[in-house]
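Write out the 3D structure for:
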Amino acid sequence: MVWIARHTMAAMFAATRILPVLVTSLASIAAAQTTAPHRPTTPLPRLSGGNPLVHELRVMSFNVWVGGANVNGGLQKIVDAIVAADADVVGIQESSATAVWVAQELGWYSYMPSTGSVAVVSRFPITETFPLTLNGAGTGVRLQLNANPPQDVIFWSCHLTADPYGPYQACFDGATTQVIIDTQNVTQLPEIQDVLFAMAPQLVQKDQVPLIIVGDFNTPSHLDWIPGTAAQHCGYVVPYPVTLAMQTVGLLDAYRTLFPDPAADPANTWSTIFPFNDDVNQPEPQDRIDQVHFAGSGVEPLDAAVFVVGNPADWPNHASNAWPSDHAGVVVDFAVRPTDGAPLPLPSLTLDGSTFAVGEEIGATFARGPGNARDWIGIYPITEAPGLFSSTAWYYTNNTQNAGAGSGPNQGTVTFGAGSAPTWPLPPGQYNAYFLCCDGYAVSAGPVAFEVL
Protein backbone atom coordinates (compact mmCIF):
# COMPACT_ATOMS: atom_id res chain seq x y z
CA MET A 1 0.00 0.00 0.00
CA VAL A 2 1.20 3.48 -0.79
CA TRP A 3 -0.21 6.81 0.30
CA ILE A 4 -1.37 9.50 -2.14
CA ALA A 5 -2.84 12.58 -0.48
CA ARG A 6 -5.63 13.03 -3.01
CA HIS A 7 -7.25 9.70 -2.22
CA THR A 8 -10.25 9.35 0.03
CA MET A 9 -10.47 5.56 0.31
CA ALA A 10 -10.13 3.91 3.68
CA ALA A 11 -6.56 4.32 4.92
CA MET A 12 -5.47 0.72 4.34
CA PHE A 13 -6.40 0.98 0.68
CA ALA A 14 -5.33 4.57 0.04
CA ALA A 15 -3.62 5.31 -3.25
CA THR A 16 -3.84 1.86 -4.73
CA ARG A 17 -2.83 1.82 -8.36
CA ILE A 18 -4.77 -0.45 -10.61
CA LEU A 19 -4.09 -2.32 -13.83
CA PRO A 20 -5.21 -5.57 -15.41
CA VAL A 21 -3.26 -8.41 -13.83
CA LEU A 22 -0.12 -9.36 -15.73
CA VAL A 23 1.32 -12.70 -14.65
CA THR A 24 4.54 -14.02 -16.14
CA SER A 25 7.02 -16.35 -14.53
CA LEU A 26 10.38 -17.99 -14.97
CA ALA A 27 9.98 -21.48 -16.34
CA SER A 28 11.60 -23.12 -13.34
CA ILE A 29 9.00 -21.68 -10.95
CA ALA A 30 6.47 -24.48 -11.01
CA ALA A 31 4.33 -23.27 -8.13
CA ALA A 32 3.32 -20.05 -9.87
CA GLN A 33 3.95 -20.81 -13.50
CA THR A 34 1.54 -19.46 -16.10
CA THR A 35 3.86 -18.75 -19.05
CA ALA A 36 7.57 -19.09 -19.66
CA PRO A 37 8.40 -16.32 -22.13
CA HIS A 38 12.03 -15.58 -21.38
CA ARG A 39 13.78 -18.55 -19.79
CA PRO A 40 17.06 -19.49 -21.52
CA THR A 41 16.82 -22.78 -23.39
CA THR A 42 19.86 -24.13 -21.58
CA PRO A 43 19.83 -22.48 -18.17
CA LEU A 44 22.94 -22.33 -16.04
CA PRO A 45 22.98 -24.68 -13.05
CA ARG A 46 20.98 -23.51 -10.05
CA LEU A 47 22.78 -22.64 -6.86
CA SER A 48 24.04 -25.56 -4.87
CA GLY A 49 25.89 -25.73 -1.58
CA GLY A 50 28.25 -28.28 -3.11
CA ASN A 51 29.30 -26.12 -6.04
CA PRO A 52 32.63 -24.30 -5.70
CA LEU A 53 31.19 -21.43 -7.77
CA VAL A 54 27.85 -19.69 -7.75
CA HIS A 55 26.71 -19.89 -11.34
CA GLU A 56 23.37 -18.16 -10.99
CA LEU A 57 21.76 -15.80 -8.50
CA ARG A 58 18.02 -15.23 -8.48
CA VAL A 59 16.97 -11.90 -6.97
CA MET A 60 13.48 -10.68 -6.19
CA SER A 61 11.92 -7.29 -5.48
CA PHE A 62 8.84 -7.75 -3.31
CA ASN A 63 6.54 -5.07 -1.88
CA VAL A 64 4.71 -7.11 0.76
CA TRP A 65 1.87 -4.58 1.32
CA VAL A 66 2.27 -3.64 4.96
CA GLY A 67 3.87 -6.90 6.00
CA GLY A 68 1.15 -9.08 4.48
CA ALA A 69 -1.48 -7.56 6.76
CA ASN A 70 -4.09 -7.15 4.05
CA VAL A 71 -4.66 -10.82 3.24
CA ASN A 72 -5.51 -13.75 5.48
CA GLY A 73 -2.37 -15.50 6.70
CA GLY A 74 -0.26 -12.87 4.97
CA LEU A 75 2.98 -13.58 6.84
CA GLN A 76 3.03 -17.20 5.76
CA LYS A 77 2.02 -16.21 2.24
CA ILE A 78 5.09 -13.95 2.02
CA VAL A 79 7.26 -16.98 2.85
CA ASP A 80 5.33 -19.16 0.40
CA ALA A 81 5.77 -16.59 -2.38
CA ILE A 82 9.54 -16.43 -1.86
CA VAL A 83 9.72 -20.22 -1.95
CA ALA A 84 7.55 -20.32 -5.09
CA ALA A 85 9.82 -17.77 -6.76
CA ASP A 86 12.86 -19.89 -5.84
CA ALA A 87 14.60 -16.62 -4.97
CA ASP A 88 18.06 -16.46 -3.40
CA VAL A 89 17.90 -12.89 -2.11
CA VAL A 90 14.85 -10.64 -1.72
CA GLY A 91 14.61 -6.88 -1.35
CA ILE A 92 11.48 -6.26 0.69
CA GLN A 93 9.46 -3.06 0.80
CA GLU A 94 6.68 -2.27 3.30
CA SER A 95 8.32 -4.81 5.56
CA SER A 96 6.47 -3.75 8.74
CA ALA A 97 9.04 -5.57 10.92
CA THR A 98 8.39 -8.96 9.27
CA ALA A 99 11.79 -9.62 7.69
CA VAL A 100 13.44 -11.39 10.62
CA TRP A 101 10.46 -13.72 11.02
CA VAL A 102 10.41 -14.43 7.28
CA ALA A 103 14.13 -15.18 7.28
CA GLN A 104 13.78 -17.43 10.31
CA GLU A 105 11.03 -19.42 8.60
CA LEU A 106 13.25 -19.83 5.54
CA GLY A 107 16.41 -20.55 7.53
CA TRP A 108 17.99 -17.49 5.93
CA TYR A 109 19.85 -14.31 6.92
CA SER A 110 18.19 -10.92 7.20
CA TYR A 111 18.84 -7.22 7.60
CA MET A 112 15.99 -5.04 8.81
CA PRO A 113 16.77 -1.55 10.11
CA SER A 114 14.84 -0.51 13.20
CA THR A 115 12.96 2.16 11.21
CA GLY A 116 11.81 2.46 7.61
CA SER A 117 10.03 -0.06 5.42
CA VAL A 118 12.93 -1.68 3.57
CA ALA A 119 14.68 -4.94 4.40
CA VAL A 120 16.72 -7.75 2.85
CA VAL A 121 16.40 -11.51 3.34
CA SER A 122 19.05 -13.77 1.85
CA ARG A 123 20.00 -17.42 1.71
CA PHE A 124 23.62 -16.18 1.71
CA PRO A 125 25.48 -14.67 4.68
CA ILE A 126 25.29 -10.92 5.17
CA THR A 127 28.80 -9.70 5.95
CA GLU A 128 28.25 -5.93 5.96
CA THR A 129 25.27 -3.60 6.28
CA PHE A 130 24.70 -0.02 5.16
CA PRO A 131 22.47 2.44 7.05
CA LEU A 132 19.15 3.83 5.94
CA THR A 133 19.25 6.73 3.53
CA LEU A 134 17.08 9.88 3.32
CA ASN A 135 13.48 9.29 4.47
CA GLY A 136 14.26 5.62 5.04
CA ALA A 137 14.17 5.13 1.27
CA GLY A 138 17.01 2.63 0.94
CA THR A 139 19.30 0.23 2.76
CA GLY A 140 21.93 -2.20 1.58
CA VAL A 141 24.01 -5.24 2.48
CA ARG A 142 27.06 -7.11 1.29
CA LEU A 143 26.39 -10.78 0.55
CA GLN A 144 29.01 -13.52 0.60
CA LEU A 145 28.05 -15.95 -2.15
CA ASN A 146 31.30 -17.89 -1.86
CA ALA A 147 34.35 -17.51 0.32
CA ASN A 148 36.87 -19.15 -2.00
CA PRO A 149 37.06 -18.00 -4.70
CA PRO A 150 35.52 -14.82 -3.33
CA GLN A 151 32.13 -13.94 -4.76
CA ASP A 152 30.44 -11.03 -3.03
CA VAL A 153 27.55 -8.86 -4.19
CA ILE A 154 26.34 -5.51 -2.86
CA PHE A 155 22.52 -5.59 -2.70
CA TRP A 156 20.19 -2.66 -1.97
CA SER A 157 16.43 -2.49 -1.35
CA CYS A 158 14.59 0.79 -1.96
CA HIS A 159 11.13 2.25 -1.44
CA LEU A 160 10.71 5.83 -2.60
CA THR A 161 7.98 8.32 -1.71
CA ALA A 162 4.72 7.68 -3.56
CA ASP A 163 3.38 11.23 -3.88
CA PRO A 164 3.42 12.89 -6.36
CA TYR A 165 2.94 10.01 -8.76
CA GLY A 166 3.76 10.75 -12.40
CA PRO A 167 1.05 8.63 -14.06
CA TYR A 168 -1.62 10.31 -11.92
CA GLN A 169 -0.28 13.74 -12.83
CA ALA A 170 -0.35 12.79 -16.52
CA CYS A 171 -3.55 10.77 -16.81
CA PHE A 172 -5.74 12.33 -14.09
CA ASP A 173 -4.45 15.88 -13.70
CA GLY A 174 -3.29 16.71 -17.21
CA ALA A 175 -0.07 18.22 -15.84
CA THR A 176 2.62 19.27 -18.29
CA THR A 177 5.67 17.10 -18.75
CA GLN A 178 7.79 19.79 -17.13
CA VAL A 179 5.55 19.90 -14.05
CA ILE A 180 5.86 16.12 -13.71
CA ILE A 181 9.66 16.39 -13.91
CA ASP A 182 9.84 19.39 -11.57
CA THR A 183 7.79 17.73 -8.84
CA GLN A 184 9.81 14.51 -9.02
CA ASN A 185 12.96 16.62 -8.80
CA VAL A 186 11.97 17.75 -5.29
CA THR A 187 10.44 14.48 -3.99
CA GLN A 188 11.67 11.10 -5.24
CA LEU A 189 14.85 12.41 -6.87
CA PRO A 190 16.52 13.60 -3.61
CA GLU A 191 15.77 10.19 -2.10
CA ILE A 192 17.43 8.23 -4.88
CA GLN A 193 20.30 10.72 -4.98
CA ASP A 194 20.98 10.01 -1.31
CA VAL A 195 20.98 6.27 -2.06
CA LEU A 196 23.40 6.83 -4.93
CA PHE A 197 25.60 9.00 -2.70
CA ALA A 198 25.77 6.15 -0.17
CA MET A 199 26.57 3.75 -3.02
CA ALA A 200 29.28 5.96 -4.53
CA PRO A 201 32.28 4.07 -3.07
CA GLN A 202 30.65 0.80 -4.13
CA LEU A 203 30.02 2.08 -7.66
CA VAL A 204 33.71 2.91 -7.98
CA GLN A 205 34.50 -0.72 -7.07
CA LYS A 206 31.66 -2.27 -9.10
CA ASP A 207 34.00 -4.37 -11.25
CA GLN A 208 35.52 -5.87 -8.09
CA VAL A 209 32.20 -6.36 -6.23
CA PRO A 210 29.07 -6.04 -8.40
CA LEU A 211 25.96 -4.16 -7.30
CA ILE A 212 22.26 -4.94 -7.55
CA ILE A 213 19.57 -2.50 -6.45
CA VAL A 214 15.88 -3.44 -6.37
CA GLY A 215 12.79 -1.68 -5.18
CA ASP A 216 9.38 -0.14 -5.42
CA PHE A 217 10.60 3.15 -6.84
CA ASN A 218 7.09 4.62 -7.11
CA THR A 219 7.98 6.03 -10.51
CA PRO A 220 7.89 4.74 -14.06
CA SER A 221 11.08 4.47 -16.06
CA HIS A 222 12.31 6.90 -18.70
CA LEU A 223 12.94 3.75 -20.76
CA ASP A 224 9.20 3.02 -20.82
CA TRP A 225 7.57 6.42 -21.39
CA ILE A 226 8.90 6.87 -24.91
CA PRO A 227 7.22 7.99 -28.16
CA GLY A 228 6.41 4.41 -29.11
CA THR A 229 4.37 3.88 -25.95
CA ALA A 230 2.77 7.32 -25.60
CA ALA A 231 -0.65 5.93 -26.46
CA GLN A 232 -0.43 3.65 -23.40
CA HIS A 233 0.64 6.57 -21.21
CA CYS A 234 -2.14 9.08 -21.90
CA GLY A 235 -0.14 10.62 -24.75
CA TYR A 236 2.92 11.52 -22.66
CA VAL A 237 6.65 11.06 -23.15
CA VAL A 238 8.45 11.68 -19.84
CA PRO A 239 12.18 11.37 -19.08
CA TYR A 240 11.63 10.41 -15.44
CA PRO A 241 14.48 11.83 -13.28
CA VAL A 242 14.83 8.91 -10.84
CA THR A 243 15.64 6.23 -13.38
CA LEU A 244 17.73 8.67 -15.41
CA ALA A 245 19.81 9.37 -12.28
CA MET A 246 20.47 5.65 -11.80
CA GLN A 247 21.43 5.23 -15.45
CA THR A 248 23.76 8.25 -15.24
CA VAL A 249 25.88 6.64 -12.51
CA GLY A 250 26.18 3.38 -14.46
CA LEU A 251 23.25 1.32 -13.13
CA LEU A 252 21.44 -0.67 -15.82
CA ASP A 253 17.79 -1.71 -15.78
CA ALA A 254 17.90 -5.52 -15.82
CA TYR A 255 14.49 -6.03 -17.38
CA ARG A 256 15.03 -3.49 -20.15
CA THR A 257 18.54 -4.85 -20.78
CA LEU A 258 16.95 -8.20 -21.62
CA PHE A 259 13.70 -6.96 -23.15
CA PRO A 260 14.26 -3.46 -24.50
CA ASP A 261 10.89 -2.92 -26.20
CA PRO A 262 8.36 -1.57 -23.66
CA ALA A 263 5.58 -1.66 -26.25
CA ALA A 264 5.99 -5.40 -26.76
CA ASP A 265 6.79 -6.19 -23.11
CA PRO A 266 5.51 -3.51 -20.69
CA ALA A 267 6.09 -5.73 -17.61
CA ASN A 268 3.69 -3.69 -15.47
CA THR A 269 3.87 -4.38 -11.74
CA TRP A 270 1.24 -2.00 -10.41
CA SER A 271 -1.29 -3.28 -9.44
CA THR A 272 -2.45 -6.84 -9.01
CA ILE A 273 -5.84 -6.22 -7.37
CA PHE A 274 -7.27 -2.78 -8.19
CA PRO A 275 -8.75 -2.63 -11.71
CA PHE A 276 -10.26 0.84 -11.34
CA ASN A 277 -9.66 4.12 -9.57
CA ASP A 278 -12.92 5.04 -7.87
CA ASP A 279 -11.74 8.49 -6.86
CA VAL A 280 -11.55 9.72 -10.44
CA ASN A 281 -13.83 7.11 -12.05
CA GLN A 282 -11.15 6.04 -14.51
CA PRO A 283 -9.03 2.94 -15.13
CA GLU A 284 -5.85 3.00 -13.12
CA PRO A 285 -2.69 3.79 -15.13
CA GLN A 286 -0.64 0.68 -15.76
CA ASP A 287 3.07 0.86 -15.04
CA ARG A 288 6.36 -0.82 -14.17
CA ILE A 289 7.35 0.83 -10.90
CA ASP A 290 9.05 -2.21 -9.30
CA GLN A 291 12.46 -2.61 -10.88
CA VAL A 292 15.88 -4.29 -10.63
CA HIS A 293 19.09 -2.45 -11.63
CA PHE A 294 22.70 -3.64 -11.65
CA ALA A 295 26.29 -2.56 -12.25
CA GLY A 296 29.65 -4.30 -12.61
CA SER A 297 31.48 -6.63 -14.98
CA GLY A 298 31.01 -9.57 -12.61
CA VAL A 299 27.24 -9.76 -12.99
CA GLU A 300 25.05 -10.30 -16.05
CA PRO A 301 21.24 -10.66 -16.28
CA LEU A 302 20.09 -13.89 -17.88
CA ASP A 303 16.33 -13.76 -17.53
CA ALA A 304 13.61 -11.69 -15.88
CA ALA A 305 9.91 -11.91 -15.18
CA VAL A 306 7.02 -10.20 -13.48
CA PHE A 307 5.83 -12.59 -10.79
CA VAL A 308 2.71 -13.35 -8.79
CA VAL A 309 1.33 -16.51 -7.20
CA GLY A 310 -2.04 -17.65 -8.49
CA ASN A 311 -4.64 -15.33 -9.99
CA PRO A 312 -5.31 -12.60 -7.43
CA ALA A 313 -8.90 -11.50 -6.97
CA ASP A 314 -9.60 -7.79 -7.13
CA TRP A 315 -10.26 -5.66 -4.08
CA PRO A 316 -12.49 -5.93 -2.06
CA ASN A 317 -12.46 -9.71 -2.59
CA HIS A 318 -8.70 -10.02 -2.09
CA ALA A 319 -8.46 -11.34 1.48
CA SER A 320 -8.10 -14.97 0.41
CA ASN A 321 -5.53 -14.31 -2.33
CA ALA A 322 -2.49 -16.56 -2.30
CA TRP A 323 -0.49 -13.50 -3.36
CA PRO A 324 -0.14 -11.17 -0.35
CA SER A 325 0.59 -7.92 -2.20
CA ASP A 326 -1.03 -5.23 -4.31
CA HIS A 327 2.16 -5.10 -6.42
CA ALA A 328 3.55 -7.83 -8.63
CA GLY A 329 7.05 -8.93 -7.79
CA VAL A 330 10.03 -8.83 -10.12
CA VAL A 331 12.41 -11.79 -10.39
CA VAL A 332 15.76 -11.62 -12.24
CA ASP A 333 18.35 -14.34 -12.77
CA PHE A 334 21.97 -13.14 -12.82
CA ALA A 335 25.16 -14.94 -13.74
CA VAL A 336 27.77 -14.03 -11.13
CA ARG A 337 31.47 -14.54 -11.78
CA PRO A 338 34.25 -14.67 -9.19
CA THR A 339 35.27 -11.19 -8.09
CA ASP A 340 38.32 -9.54 -6.60
CA GLY A 341 36.49 -8.54 -3.42
CA ALA A 342 38.15 -10.18 -0.45
CA PRO A 343 35.71 -12.26 1.63
CA LEU A 344 34.84 -10.79 5.01
CA PRO A 345 34.84 -12.89 8.18
CA LEU A 346 31.34 -13.58 9.41
CA PRO A 347 30.04 -12.55 12.85
CA SER A 348 29.40 -15.47 15.21
CA LEU A 349 27.46 -16.21 18.39
CA THR A 350 27.85 -19.21 20.67
CA LEU A 351 26.41 -20.11 24.07
CA ASP A 352 28.20 -21.92 26.88
CA GLY A 353 25.62 -24.69 26.80
CA SER A 354 22.44 -25.91 25.14
CA THR A 355 20.41 -26.58 28.30
CA PHE A 356 20.20 -24.47 31.45
CA ALA A 357 18.40 -24.72 34.77
CA VAL A 358 15.92 -22.03 35.73
CA GLY A 359 17.95 -19.10 37.08
CA GLU A 360 21.28 -20.42 35.80
CA GLU A 361 23.46 -17.79 34.16
CA ILE A 362 23.84 -18.02 30.38
CA GLY A 363 27.08 -16.97 28.71
CA ALA A 364 26.82 -15.71 25.12
CA THR A 365 30.11 -15.23 23.29
CA PHE A 366 30.18 -13.08 20.17
CA ALA A 367 32.99 -12.46 17.68
CA ARG A 368 33.70 -10.41 14.55
CA GLY A 369 30.77 -8.10 15.27
CA PRO A 370 30.12 -4.69 13.69
CA GLY A 371 31.62 -2.96 16.74
CA ASN A 372 28.77 -0.51 17.36
CA ALA A 373 28.10 0.71 20.89
CA ARG A 374 24.46 -0.36 20.55
CA ASP A 375 25.01 -3.88 19.20
CA TRP A 376 23.15 -6.27 21.49
CA ILE A 377 22.32 -9.87 22.32
CA GLY A 378 18.63 -10.72 22.63
CA ILE A 379 16.85 -13.82 23.88
CA TYR A 380 13.45 -14.73 22.45
CA PRO A 381 11.06 -17.67 22.84
CA ILE A 382 11.68 -20.00 19.94
CA THR A 383 8.31 -19.16 18.36
CA GLU A 384 8.97 -15.39 18.36
CA ALA A 385 11.23 -13.32 16.11
CA PRO A 386 13.07 -10.03 16.65
CA GLY A 387 11.12 -7.10 15.28
CA LEU A 388 7.74 -8.75 15.65
CA PHE A 389 8.10 -9.36 19.38
CA SER A 390 10.02 -7.83 22.27
CA SER A 391 12.99 -9.72 23.65
CA THR A 392 12.59 -11.75 26.81
CA ALA A 393 16.07 -10.76 28.01
CA TRP A 394 18.81 -8.62 26.50
CA TYR A 395 22.15 -6.90 26.99
CA TYR A 396 24.29 -4.57 24.95
CA THR A 397 27.63 -6.10 24.05
CA ASN A 398 29.19 -4.21 26.97
CA ASN A 399 27.20 -6.55 29.26
CA THR A 400 24.88 -3.78 30.49
CA GLN A 401 21.61 -2.23 29.41
CA ASN A 402 23.28 1.17 29.04
CA ALA A 403 25.10 1.68 25.75
CA GLY A 404 28.39 3.51 25.92
CA ALA A 405 29.44 6.34 23.63
CA GLY A 406 31.36 5.80 20.41
CA SER A 407 32.22 2.31 19.29
CA GLY A 408 31.60 -0.94 21.11
CA PRO A 409 33.35 -4.29 21.40
CA ASN A 410 33.38 -6.50 18.32
CA GLN A 411 34.05 -9.59 20.42
CA GLY A 412 33.45 -10.67 23.98
CA THR A 413 31.03 -12.47 26.27
CA VAL A 414 27.71 -11.33 27.67
CA THR A 415 26.47 -13.13 30.78
CA PHE A 416 22.71 -13.21 31.23
CA GLY A 417 21.61 -13.12 34.84
CA ALA A 418 19.67 -11.03 37.31
CA GLY A 419 20.24 -7.74 35.46
CA SER A 420 19.07 -8.88 32.03
CA ALA A 421 15.48 -7.67 32.26
CA PRO A 422 12.69 -7.65 31.29
CA THR A 423 12.33 -11.33 32.26
CA TRP A 424 14.67 -13.15 34.62
CA PRO A 425 14.90 -15.93 35.50
CA LEU A 426 13.78 -17.35 32.19
CA PRO A 427 10.85 -19.71 32.66
CA PRO A 428 11.19 -23.28 31.35
CA GLY A 429 10.93 -23.48 27.59
CA GLN A 430 12.81 -23.32 24.31
CA TYR A 431 14.58 -20.10 23.27
CA ASN A 432 16.75 -18.55 20.58
CA ALA A 433 19.63 -16.14 21.14
CA TYR A 434 20.45 -13.51 18.49
CA PHE A 435 23.40 -11.19 17.93
CA LEU A 436 21.74 -7.98 16.67
CA CYS A 437 23.03 -4.75 15.24
CA CYS A 438 22.82 -1.18 16.47
CA ASP A 439 19.58 -1.04 18.49
CA GLY A 440 17.75 -2.62 15.57
CA TYR A 441 16.79 -6.06 14.37
CA ALA A 442 19.48 -6.76 11.80
CA VAL A 443 20.70 -10.24 12.73
CA SER A 444 24.50 -10.38 12.76
CA ALA A 445 24.51 -14.00 13.96
CA GLY A 446 22.03 -16.57 15.20
CA PRO A 447 19.58 -17.85 16.05
CA VAL A 448 21.27 -20.15 18.56
CA ALA A 449 18.75 -22.49 20.14
CA PHE A 450 18.77 -23.54 23.81
CA GLU A 451 16.38 -24.82 26.44
CA VAL A 452 15.62 -23.89 30.02
CA LEU A 453 14.56 -26.93 32.07
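The chain has a mean pLDDT of 85.
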